[in-house]
């Protein structure tokens, strides 16, 4: 993806968090967030603002700056504050064309709700797990959404929108120490700081290792293994509803939820 | 006679022009970064460095050392006497005879230079260097004839104006090359730049038989990290590049060049010269970087080196094996320059190729290059019952396990070494999970920030405990601990321990009688010197002595000792993995095969991995620790030679303590 002139006026906000290495538990640049920054840098290096809500002194944030950012904007707030109100307040003022987030954070609640909550608050459509922004024309973006087993779904979404970036997106460029240590951390106190009461009531503990079912390899040949790794998941009982009256399709969804016992 | 007044004029003009050129050249060097040198003591030490240290290196090629002594000695002597006779008009018969003698000496030397140039090996640069012997001969002959009348051997007006004109032409040619060319970038530049390079060398420790191989630390608070443009080098590094004589000894030794990777140390240094002076490499008349055409590179003092002058792939091809530095008769520091430029690419541009970025990220996040959980560092020793420093706080020997702990092949070496240590009742302990990667790979990949962070944390971990020696099976960690960590101790502290490679340590144990070994029963064995043990730390003898103790007669390879060829595993080269025509490890294995060895003994887990990566059939690869462990006679308690007392196993008074 080469930045072209078309994107000169495009404004992207990439939301970044402090990640956590699964092995060492050490703070790092989060893998999905880094991909969001990479996507932003590739699409609109001039119009990219990298945004974090939290502690401006977190060293791990510099790893994002090392990707070649002059500065990071930080909405300074306490450790237990909810990031959503501060971010949505800020984004509703700056009104970026695209808001990129990771799918879920590597630490904290890690609920994966950020994109949805922001979309709701900002009144923007939400696209989940995108792998690539192919192009932008006439105020609409052509996206590729990542599906399991390497499949992609082409989507066309009007600007502005919120998108979460999947691991299938382009790997982030290397973070260089020099620019990282020199980048400006432009911190200002968040306009609103709401204590995240739900999280505050939780206690964190390392996950217990669960027994895993042994994977029995049934494939006899390499071709079989390849097929097993790439074949579409063949969940049966699915039903595609298309080009029908909305009420009919809604009824079908309602019936299914009732049947599965999700609603009673 | 015309020459009577023409000669002094010609000599004066040539001298003036030479001095002007030299001043210009000096201004080019001064565009580099400041670096403190001891100016006067450097200049004072220069003759000795030239006549002794440099001569030792040149002496490896007897033909060239004798040729050079005659030519250069004859030239310097005759130049002094020419000034006396032809410029200041000293009229002394003996001085004239001395001048004639010096010119004859120079002539004879130049004849041998000429002979060498008749059919020059490919490593030698051609171009102006092919002209040099002719210029030398012309200088010697012209001045010889011109001096004859003054010496009273020929009549004053012999030959008339025809001969005078011919002589004047010859003298202009000779002095043009030897004086003018010295200042203005001709082949003779090496004499001027070389002598100053020796005086202001960045590693003066190398002279007088010393060794200086640790990389210089980066100031991480600087406005720019590493070298982007030629002027980002220290001024005396630029001076060093200018000292190059293009003899190509580096090229002949470089494993990356031999493998067809795009690196030629000689060309690299010449490109640095192009960079510092500005221009293109079109005039370069030596072997190119394999696969890259000569003539396309352009640079200038303030132009980014990797944009147009040197391809990043060239820099990443280097295995940092130091073979070029070891071989260079001008004592140029190629590896320093390469790592300096890598530092810019990694620390400022974030463009470490291939797996580089991933490895560095892993080192930052997990303190090991493969991203394993740092808490699993001791898993290899689950059954070894090792003592951990955290528990014992004190031991004679700290066993530095290194990242081999995560690799199954290396674990076999570690286990073998532990077996040896236990058999000799050595009082040792390990750091366990407090140990981190030594930072070697990070540093060679140019990431000095990560290296410094690892080094400081390792130092902090070690500082909590008491021990006298560190022993490690990894020459790379050995080099870092021994030569590079001292720069990172907190203010006022310095390392108070000795660092040893396991071959040195086991050799000591054997010599002290702490181990009883049976004869090695196998075929021919050769030994591969790891670069970071040999060239970096001068340890060539202990591994060989140890092999002898095992009853092994080492079948030496042609490239062994200080001329050992790299396995291809150093400097992060397997990580950056720049494509070539051959693999360095394959070439090394071919050399092993030439000795007819069935087994190659190594002293480095990286070499083991590289050499075992060569497809079979090939020689078996074993670390010396494994060979010793196999040869241990167990059950029979070792006898200390010192007092002949039977040492009891698990006795508090350990035999090993006596020898430590």
Q: Uncertain segments of chain B of ≥5 residues (pLDDT<50)?
A: 638-660
| Estimated structural class of chain B | mainly alpha
Distance between the termini of chain B: 80 Å
Radius of gyration of chain B: 29 Å
CATH architecture of the largest domain in chain A: 3-Layer(aba) Sandwich
Strand order of the largest sheet of chain A: 10-9-8-11-7-1-4-5-12
- Strand order, sheet with most strands of chain B: 4-3-5-6
Using the 3D structure, state the CATH architecture of the largest domain in chain B: Up-down Bundle
Shape field of chain B: elongated
Q: Main sheet of chain A, how many strands, which sense, barrel? A: 9 strands, mixed
Pfam family, one (chain B): DUF3483
GO molecular function (chain B): 4 iron, 4 sulfur cluster binding; metal ion binding; oxidoreductase activity
Region (Disordered) (chain B): 638-660
Keywords (chain B): 4Fe-4S, Iron, Iron-sulfur, Membrane, Metal-binding, Oxidoreductase, Transmembrane, Transmembrane helix
Topology:
The complex is a heterodimer of chains A (264) and B (660).
Chain A: E1 12-15, E2 18-20, E3 27-29, H1 31-43, E4 48-54, H2 62-65, E5 71-76, E6 81-82, H3 83-94, E7 98-102, H4 114-122, E8 126-137, E9 140-146, E10 152-158, E11 161-165, H5 177-182, E12 184-189, E13 194-195, H6 197-200, H7 222-230, H8 246-259
Parallel strand pairs in A: 1-4, 1-7, 4-5, 5-12, 7-11, 8-11
Antiparallel strand pairs in A: 2-3, 6-13, 8-9, 9-10
Chain B: H1 2-30, H2 39-58, H3 62-87, H4 93-116, H5 128-147, H6 160-183, H7 189-199, H8 235-242, H9 249-253, H10 255-258, H11 265-277, E1 279-280, E2 298-299, H12 312-316, H13 323-327, H14 334-349, H15 356-366, H16 389-392, E3 397-400, H17 408-423, E4 428-429, H18 440-444, H19 448-463, E5 469-472, H20 475-484, E6 498-501, H21 502-511, E7 525-527, H22 541-549, H23 573-576, H24 584-594, E8 599-602, H25 605-612, E9 620-623, H26 624-631, H27 655-659
Parallel strand pairs in B: 3-4, 3-5, 5-6, 7-8, 8-9
Antiparallel strand pairs in B: 1-2
Helix pairs in contact in B: 1-6, 1-8, 2-7, 3-4, 3-5, 4-5, 5-6, 7-8, 17-26, 21-22
């Amino acid at each position: 993806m080469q930045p072209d002139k078309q994107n000169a006026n495009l404004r992207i906000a990439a939301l970044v968090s402090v990640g956590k290495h699964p092995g060492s538990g050490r703070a790092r640049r989060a893998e999905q967030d880094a991909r969001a920054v990479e996507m932003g840098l590739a699409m609109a290096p001039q119009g990219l603002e990298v945004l974090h809500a939290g502690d401006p002194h977190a060293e791990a944030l510099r790893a994002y700056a090392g990707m070649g950012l002059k500065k990071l904007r930080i909405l300074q707030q306490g450790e237990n504050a909810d990031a959503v109100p501060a971010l949505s307040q800020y984004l509703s003022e700056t009104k970026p064309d695209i808001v990129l987030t990771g799918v879920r954070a590597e630490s904290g609640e890690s609920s994966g709700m950020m994109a949805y909550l922001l979309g709701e608050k900002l009144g923007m459509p939400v696209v989940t797990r995108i792998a690539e922004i192919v192009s932008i024309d006439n105020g609409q973006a052509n996206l590729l959404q990542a599906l399991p087993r390497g499949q992609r779904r082409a989507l066309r979404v009007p600007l502005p929108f919120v998108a979460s970036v999947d691991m299938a997106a382009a790997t982030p460029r290397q973070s260089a120490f020099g620019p990282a240590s020199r980048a400006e951390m432009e911190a200002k106190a968040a306009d609103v700081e709401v204590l995240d009461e739900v999280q505050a009531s939780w206690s964190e503990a390392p996950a217990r290792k669960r027994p895993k079912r042994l994977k029995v390899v049934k494939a006899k040949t390499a071709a079989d293994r390849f097929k097993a790794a790439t074949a579409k998941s063949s969940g049966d009982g699915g039903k595609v509803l298309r080009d029908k009256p909305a009420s009919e399709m809604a009824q079908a969804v309602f019936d299914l939820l009732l049947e599965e016992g999700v609603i009673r | 006679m015309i020459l009577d007044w023409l000669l002094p004029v010609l000599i004066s003009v040539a001298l003036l022009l030479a001095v002007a050129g030299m001043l210009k050249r000096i201004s080019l060097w001064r565009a580099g970064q400041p670096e403190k040198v001891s100016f006067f003591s450097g200049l004072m030490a220069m003759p000795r460095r030239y006549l002794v240290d440099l001569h030792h290196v040149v002496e490896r090629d007897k033909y060239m050392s004798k040729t050079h002594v005659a030519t250069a000695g004859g030239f310097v002597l005759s130049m002094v006497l020419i000034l006396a006779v032809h410029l200041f008009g000293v009229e002394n018969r003996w001085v004239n005879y001395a001048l004639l003698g010096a010119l004859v000496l120079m002539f004879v030397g130049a004849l041998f230079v000429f002979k060498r140039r008749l059919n020059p090996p490919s490593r030698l640069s051609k171009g102006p260097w092919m002209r040099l012997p002719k210029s030398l001969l012309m200088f010697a002959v012209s001045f010889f004839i011109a001096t004859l009348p003054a010496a009273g051997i020929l009549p004053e007006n012999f030959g008339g104006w025809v001969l005078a004109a011919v002589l004047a032409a010859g003298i202009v040619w000779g002095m043009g090359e030897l004086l003018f060319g010295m200042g203005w970038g001709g082949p003779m530049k090496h004499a001027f730049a070389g002598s100053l390079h020796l005086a202001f060398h960045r590693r003066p420790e190398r002279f007088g038989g010393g060794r200086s191989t640790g990389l210089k630390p980066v100031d991480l608070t600087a406005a720019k990290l590493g070298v982007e443009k030629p002027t980002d080098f220290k001024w005396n590094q630029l001076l060093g590049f200018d000292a190059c004589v293009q003899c190509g000894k580096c090229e002949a030794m470089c494993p990356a060049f031999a493998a067809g990777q795009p690196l030629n140390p000689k060309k690299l240094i010449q490109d640095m010269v192009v960079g510092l002076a500005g221009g293109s490499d079109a005039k370069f008349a030596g072997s190119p970087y394999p696969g890259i055409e000569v003539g396309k590179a352009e640079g200038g003092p303030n132009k980014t080196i990797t944009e147009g002058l040197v391809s990043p792939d060239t820099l990443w091809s280097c295995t940092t094996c130091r073979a070029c530095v070891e071989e260079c008769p001008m004592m140029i520091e190629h590896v320093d320059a390469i790592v300096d430029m890598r530092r810019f690419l990694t620390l400022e541009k974030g463009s470490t190729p291939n797996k580089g970025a991933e490895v560095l990220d892993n080192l930052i996040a997990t303190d090991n290059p493969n991203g394993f959980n740092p808490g699993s560092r001791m898993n290899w020793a689950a059954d070894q019952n090792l003592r951990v420093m955290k528990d014992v706080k004190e031991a004679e020997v700290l066993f530095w396990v290194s990242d081999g702990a995560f690799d199954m092949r290396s674990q076999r070496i570690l286990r073998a070494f532990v077996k040896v240590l236990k058999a000799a009742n050595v009082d040792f302990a390990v750091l366990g999970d407090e140990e981190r990667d030594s930072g070697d790979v990070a540093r060679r990949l140019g990431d000095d920030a990560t290296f410094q962070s690892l080094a400081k944390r390792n130092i902090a971990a070690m500082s909590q405990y008491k021990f006298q020696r560190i022993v490690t099976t990894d020459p790379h960690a050995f080099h870092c601990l021994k030569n590079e960590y001292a720069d990172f101790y907190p203010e006022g502290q310095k390392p108070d321990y000795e660092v040893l490679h396991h071959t040195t340590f086991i050799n000591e144990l054997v010599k002290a009688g702490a181990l009883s070994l049976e004869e090695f029963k196998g075929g021919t064995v050769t030994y591969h010197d790891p670069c970071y043990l040999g060239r970096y730390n001068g340890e060539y003898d202990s591994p060989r002595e140890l092999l002898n103790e095992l009853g092994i007669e080492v079948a030496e390879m042609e490239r062994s000792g200080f001329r050992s060829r790299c396995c291809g595993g150093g400097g992060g080269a397997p990580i950056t993995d720049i494509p070539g025509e051959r693999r360095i490890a394959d070439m090394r294995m071919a050399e092993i095969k030439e000795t007819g060895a069935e087994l190659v003994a190594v002293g480095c887990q990286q070499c083991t991995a590289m050499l075992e990566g060569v497809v079979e059939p090939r020689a078996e690869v074993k670390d010396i620790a494994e060979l010793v462990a196999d040869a241990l006679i167990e059950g029979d308690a070792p006898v200390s030679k010192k007092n002949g007392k039977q040492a009891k196993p698990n006795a508090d008074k350990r035999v090993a303590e006596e020898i430590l």
